[in-house]
Fold these 4 entries.
Entry 1:
Amino acid sequence: MSVNPQSKHDAVVDELYAEAGHWKINTGEEKIHAKRIPGKWRIWKWLASLVWLPFFLVPYLRWDDRQAILFDIPNRQFHLLGVTILPQDFWMLSLLLLFFAILLAVVTALAGRVWCGFFCFQTVWTDIFTWFEEKLEGSPQKRKKLDQGPLTFTKVRVKATKHLIWIVISALTGISFVAWFMDAYQLWADLVSFNIGITAGVTILLFIGGTYGLAGYLREQTCFWLCPYARIQGVMVDNTTAVPTYDFHRGEPRGRVKKGSSEAQRTTGDCVDCNQCVAVCPTGVDIRHGQQEGCITCALCIDACDAVMEKLDRPKGLIRYESLDVLNGKEERPLLKRPRVWVYSLVLLLSVTGIGYGMATLDAIEIKVIHSRQPLYVLQSDGSIQNKYTIKVLNKLTEDLQVTISAPDIEGLVLVGAEEHVTARKGMVTPRTLFVRIPRDKLKVESQPLVFYAETTDSSGKRLSSKRESVFIGPK
């Protein structure tokens, strides 16, 4: 038996507005319980949240006899696989921070607050917390009813289970953070034996409280009032930026669908004022009012609107990723005509180049040479000229090294104090005082260039070396 298309259409309208009656625009006076619906952008949100998996897993990877990536603050060492970075190389950290800051600006200029909507830890953790909340307490309407209902055994049981799960997630977050700064396996052993240090213990407790409070209670209020990015995004977004946008040309004037009416008879736009875009918004904004501070560009409103349009047999895309210029009929401005993007990209390139150069030239050992100024030189009884130097050997490895110091480039040079190896302690700077003597007839100028070399081998037999230029001062 065939189904009357008009009856099917009227049934869809009844279902749509029966639910729409429960939704209104939230102005912050009550807790937001966002509706979850399936869709393309919801899938992308879950996939994007997987970028945080390494935060939990990477600390357990091993490299030789230590943690693969370890930020050892007490010993002032950063271990990245086979590379050890000491405070002397922290200029690369500055370039890395600059890279991510400019990358954020580039992405915002092109596609709005994509970081906020898909990758931000506040967004991801809140999404996980509310997913468990929905599984335990039900739909948004049921959650509101439960919150407003009397205190019963069922309510206590459900609420206690939810908060216990939240606390477990918060604890794992805190432990995972601390595991980047101390050996992860030792951290768990200390936790099990209740032998955790004060610093690690306090840090974990702070993360538990912060995660539990921000993702469980403050939620969207964190984005509104605590995050500075919401305030500065306005200077990064312009009319050429593609963001989730309501097509007001097509949607207005809004009008509810009347039962029994046909598409040919309607005089309103495509927006049927169902408020589904508001219902799914995690910050409770109405995208139809244009770009707002609370919009985190998560694109869930696109899924909601497309689902409604599909039910009503209307074209999708009433809400879509689009720039204001394109929406108003202007020709889309290509990247080649957007100087700001080029400037951002140049800074990104320079940052990456600097980091690459730093990593490529990162030596396992380094030496610094300090020439004594008092006196500049000493005339010896045999007629030779003597200069005094302090050689500082920096060992970036996790093992002690026996380093040989030499300066072989000048004929007749005698190096006093370098007869024995310098025992360079792991991760430390080891000084050694040396005297350089050169026959006066071998000095061609008053200030003679002089190169010191440091050579050693590690436990695997790999040869390591470093050199540093200095000067040898003689009489006029």
Entry 2:
Amino acid sequence: VGVVQSAYYIGFLLGAVYGGALITRVGHHRAFVTFAAASACCALGYAVWSAAAMWVVLRFVTGFCLVGIFTVVESWLHQVASNAQRGRVFSAYLITNYLGVGTGQFLIGLADPGGFELFSAVAALFTASLIPVALAGTAPAATAALDASRATYGSRLARGLSGLQSIYRWAPLGVAACLSAGALNSAFYTMQPVFMRRIGYAVPDVSHFMGFALLAALVPQWPVARLADRFDRRKVLLCLAAVTGSLSVLLFLLHDDRLIRAFGYLYVAVAFSMYGVVTSYVNDCIPADERVAVSAGLLLIFSVGASAGPTLASATMSVAGPSGLYLFTGLVTGALATLTMRSVAGRHGR
């Protein structure tokens, strides 16, 4: 399961690097249709083939297509929104995205996951997303904007590698923190359902927990951001890592149903707050003229961590049992907390 799920994040990584080329070549509308149609085909493919190797391929393609969809939507919004409305427009998009991810989990309880129905529902939803796009009028971008977009996406990999060097030079803690955030996020997304099924939860219970947990991740985003703006971001990151590590230990040791649920909600709320703090910390440290490259570098680092997370978590679970998921997250957050303490205690503010 871990290897299959890691394939998704590898596809996500490569899609982030190369998917923009299709958007600049054929435009937002056609690119969205291409990515959504391919995703619908993959959804049906899971129901047709049950071989793990085939699922690795399908998950890879799905990851590539979904990051393409996100890129289309986000670049589209940035293109049409004015500077005065950009923050509110993008905030509404993020809220919609989180709500979709959270409520989508409840669909798992509608039918047997081993049957064809749920995969058909996913394919139908991807297909339905094409309707408003097909009906929307096309607003061709200015030539200068397209040229700038081509330059950005054409050099995304080069910018990402350059950004890696900049992050390591100006904020080396950001490399480890971003890797950790990617590993923690992907491990929870992909292996938490396995953990719950292995300790005896029914499928509807798993879907309800995942749905409410991902909705709970919305709650602390604003308060944590306010704290990170008022205090040293590394100290806020240290607190988040320490709390996440403590919750990981409790979840590794506990067996009571109510406590697992309660601490599980707290865990995802705290762990999913890390990435915003990390990106803000890194951007505080770097020169202003390197922000574009650093943004690409952060995406690459996060994707590498996310690619490794499910496989490493599943390997730990194979040794320590289902609760090995939280042994893995405890080790990751423990290492991150140690590195953050050293950074706070260091002299150069890094």
Entry 3:
Amino acid sequence: MPPRSRTPARRRRRRLFASSVLLIALSAGGLALYLNRHETPAAESPPPPEQAGTPILDAARARAGLDRLPVAWNRNWETYDRNAFGPGWSGRGGEPALSGGCTAREQVMKRDLTETLVGDSNSCLVLSGTLDDPYTGERIPYDRFTSSGIEVDHVVALGDAWRSGASQWQPEQREKFANDVGNLLAVQKQANQEKGSKSPDQWQPRQAYQCEYARRWVSVKERWGLSVQPTEKSALVDMLDTCGPPANR
């Protein structure tokens, strides 16, 4: 039988061991709590899809996306009705607000203009700002209370969307397309009117913007399942070449 004099030492070792285990457990629990609290922002949900709009593909993905698009000649052009895409884009106003509270038109103006001044009581309303027009490169001042040289353009125009598949959609889907901020740009008014509903084989922006324009065009058509005409696809291939050569060339 061990001497009694060693028993207190064993007890002290046991208490020390138990205290160490408890300290480790508390430390682990505290670390987990710290990580849970401090990692939350990284796990936040992205903006609602209607606020973020169609994600714009990089050049490599746009080339692959273009290859996946169905190729077909335009159809049903004679039945196109701008009002079929919901209120707001017929020129009479009334477009719906997105989940952030602003309309698509207001959100695009806030996104694309710089040096902006917004309303005190309505932060959706841009009172003034400056646009570096992507289509022409022109720098255009904006003042809500004077005649504006800026318009909001559907890159893939509503008419083009109608002819390449949207004529078969339900009204709700057409309205969502019309308010897809990924397909909208604030641009010079004259350039927008010259573009109209033309496809890239009929109208193109300045050379320096052709890469991004083609990437946006393909991104929108792929997301919404729209087709491209043979001549349109050929023009998009050439425009994507301005992004630089593919990696395998």
Entry 4:
Amino acid sequence: MFKLPAPPSLDTLICEFDTVLRTLAASAQSVRPHPDRQVDEAELSAAEKRHAAGLMRVNHCGEVCAQALYQGQALTARDPAAREALREAAHEEVEHLAWTEQRIAELGSHKSLLNPLWYAGSLAIGVTAGLIGDKWNLGFLAETERQVGAHLQSHLQSLPELDAKSRAIVAQMYSDEMNHADKAVELGAAELPAPVKLLMQQSSRVMTSLSYRV
């Protein structure tokens, strides 16, 4: 029988609202050292800087979406282990936010102006995924991380050859995302149907295309 999770307490809702504000309005902080901390800045052309900044803006936007997704999924997860895995993934995504935010600034650009829109949509998707059930919730986490990993691999191919700082950040992000996917599988993630995966890919294309420019 389908059973809804217990509604969150007022304290929980306040904490979750604080997460929204910190993600959208505050500068993220990283516990781990930034992956590019020992990498020298290269001399990039104006076009290379714009392209690198666009890719890093896409990555930052992806991390904003991840925060919202995992927040929604954790709110509706039933299994404590699944909930903890989601919160652990979200914690590392905050570090990714910090890394990409700083790199965007170094490249002389700005974060996506559409982040509040992406956050709201991703939160709704996360809540829905959690309501369907934990194995599907974890399946959504695993597939999200795989698709993010594919984007990051494409960015490693597309980033300016001399931009070693951005490459160092993206490479560490890729490693973290794959670890999240593996953890979800270990906890019993279900394999999502092909139409759902395709819908996720199409939605991601829209987000990345707009975030690269805006």
